[in-house]
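Convert to structure. Protein one:
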Amino acid sequence: MTKEADMRITGIELSVVKLPLERPQTTAIHRFDHVAALLVTVRTDIGLSGEGYAFCFDVERMQSIAALAQSLKSLYLGRDPHDVEALWAEAFRSLNFYGQAGIAVIAMTPFDVACWDLVGKAAGRPLYQLFGACRTSVPIYASGGLWLSATPEQLQEEARAFLAQGFKAMKLRIGSARWQDDVARVECVREVIGPEIALMVDANQGLTPQKAIRLGRALERFDLVWFEEPLPTWDDAGNAALANALDTAIASGETEFTRYGVRRMVEARAADIMMPDLQRMGGFTEMRKAASYLAARDVPVSPHIFTEHSMHIVASSKHGLYCESFPWFEPLFRQKVQLDEHGHAAMPKAPGVGFEFDWERLDALKVASPVLGG
């Protein structure tokens, strides 16, 4: 037995950082000019450390997530990070009174990801190999632009920039006051990228059933990969009716928590493609359960954001479609996701997650957090 087979968590550090955006971003339901991240570092008695993070749209609300995460530290201290299943179940059960969704689950995520990072580092293997690799690179689509606030000229400029960066797939936000304007937005992007580049649209749950079906039918001529979140995620009946009525695949599920929300949507046939979100799953432990369930039902999976971490899910799932590229979180890491000529990103060879926090940059982005004592 090697020393790596027996390690204990000896320390946990939490900090909040503010990540400014180049300009305010707008979707059908959000407007924001920065995002906040809770960074968690888990240290062990054998010198290895693991890292994980959670995010939300503003620093003030991040303090609530940080406070709940701070309360979970004692559950992990002194434990073996290999015990990810037991630790996840204990944390989930301990939060029962506070609701096993929302902030409660988000606060669990950085600890679970950090423990898995340690498991990979102790084994000397990247996580996707420990999960069971089925590919060594994953397709990536650009999602850090083509916002609802952009003019047609800006949309075309951004689409050209994505092509120049090597992307072979990209996503456009829709949800205009007039559905005809959304058709025009898709048309102007397709005009620039041509028929061979994959194009997705995302309404961010901002449409009514009537508007969604009219718009969906009008968009079918553009050969979209998917029509994402046309309706609120809780409207299973409406989403199922839309999925049945349109030729374009309906993608949804990013705002569902744990395997139970994923199961509910699948059983209702509310989406053709599921998009579980790593932090709303509570980390890799639960995310893998959701991915396995989706594979058993032959439902394609395309995780929501967290590119550097979600890559390991797509690379270990035969039903994995794409990873979503978001520039918001690139400043967190020393290593960068690099695209090849096919618009794919090679999986990291370093053990664990394979991406490490860039503290030389992040120290300057830390903000005071009363709940963390800073």
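Protein two, convert as well:
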Amino acid sequence: MPCVTHDDAPLLADLMPWSVAPLRPGRAWPTAPDPGSLKARWDALLKAEGPQREALFEPTRMRNLTSAVGQLPGQSTGTGRLARAGGPCAEPVRVLAAPFDEQWLIPDHRLIDTARPELWRVTDAHQVFTVETGDEDDPLLVTSLLPALRTGRVRPLYRRPGGAEPNLAPGLAAHLAGRLGGAPASPTDILAWILAATGPGLTVPLTDDPALWSAGVELGRRMLWLMRRDGERPKLPGGRRPYVRAPLPVRPLTLAYDEDEETLHLDEGRVSPVPAEAWDYEVAGTRVLESWFAARTTVPAPGTLAAIRPATWPPAWTSELLELITVLALLAELRPRRDELKVTTSITATELREARVLPAPEASRRPASVLDHHEEGPEGQFTLI
């Protein structure tokens, strides 16, 4: 972890004051690694009637077939009660379902126990979400997708759509710029530093050394790019790029790693080279590659909607696996640089309080009022929030 020579570093919660608790899906079947399965599950739910539909839905205290809820912001799903619902499945949206695991979700409020509409309202091409993991080595993840992880709190970089109003303590950027000799500190730069420098307890040491700041921001931007995976796709150097060396089976059931040969075995299928650092990459004590594979191969209980899934291993999953190996390997290479990020001169929490940057105003800890249009409420009634 970054070496910090002071014990008065500000907390992440002070620097990015608005946070949202994670989504609580309530049932697993509206999320899947492929969108086709979700549409088939929806069709199966609507074909069932009465008690059978209720059993397939998997009701909870928060949601059942008669729950009355509005649309999720930005979506056009129905708002009638599921007991009498009809029509096609809402177009699935891409979400981050687990660390480094991009899956699909039916964006229907009636299917999700606690959907956190405030996150949906600010999800767009400009947004970056920071997610607390509870892991000492990798305390934060970032994603451009709606985070559906069941981990810690979610902190959007922007409080409004369109990249408007950064979710940063008011005055923080100006204070940093002043202490760094006038160099501007953009919201993305600050987030990059946070990603690179955050330590145990979600403390964020801040430096007033322009050279160290630039090094940390550069490192954090590299981490941001790898985790967000937008734009140009990451690649390992030639000769180190993973390839399928033996065809993957129709439906692999086991995953194993041969460290001597740097080979990932999916039954008789083989992928190599796979660096040991990629295989060993963990978040909160869980090996990422094993978790990713289990999400696609664990056999659900028969007769459930989750049991509706691809009959064979889709080629898209192979491409996703190769990219995931690449991302984990490249992120592992950055860990020594994070360990070397020594903050020897600092901007302390005490200094930020004296400058009245902290504590952030209470209003900055609540969602911004972003609605300029009607959102459809239960049973088609429109409300303006």
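Residues 1-5 have pLDDT under 50 and may be disordered. DSSP finds eleven helices and 19 strands in the chain.
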